[in-house]
Amino acid sequence: MGLFSTLSPQAASQLDVIVSGLYSTGFVVLDHVFDDNYLTCLLKELIDLNPQEFKPAGIGREDAYQKNKFVRNDRIHWLDGDESFLSSYLTWAESLRLAVNRRLFLGLYEYECMFAHYPEGAFYKRHIDAFKTGINRRLSTVLYLNPQWGPQDGGELVMYAPDSNRITHQILPTMGRLVVFLSEEFPHEVLPAKRARYSLTGWYRINEGHHPAF
What we know:
Layout: H1 3-6, H2 10-24, E1 27-30, H3 36-47, E2 55-56, E3 75-79, H4 87-104, E4 110-118, E5 124-127, E6 137-144, E7 157-160, E8 167-171, E9 178-182, E10 188-190, E11 197-205
């Protein structure tokens, strides 16, 4: 299934908007990048995944990996990229990778993604997506899949200025909202939600030996 048969025609044109935003501020929030029907189908497919495949999320990587319910208590399902319902989204993700590398020379190499489920009351305390043990996570993406979400539902993504406690953005996780930001630059947290909260979250990696120009 091709990218433009299921995604909004805006998806391609907004690649330039994303790249320009990353260049100027390192952070982009966009609505209506993807077609509503596709988002609805994507949410259904994700919710229908085997509940046993959802695991309590942890923090850190490899030997430093641990579970800490006081830091985060969401549940995640890693996606292997072979899911047919993801093909259009992954095609778009690859298009973004190429666009970013072409204009910003980040050297993005591969993309990984997971489905995150925040049950009622779940949260994720302030953190940075890039691991201290390496710089391989370079760019983060979050696509929200929460129909009819309002301020009363909570679950906002709170973004902080680099090396600061100053809040720069507080973002409602509304259906189809896309957030893209430099993984190493922006501390952020997820506030407790008052009902189930869903997102498709991903990261572009670089090779450990690569030194980006930007």
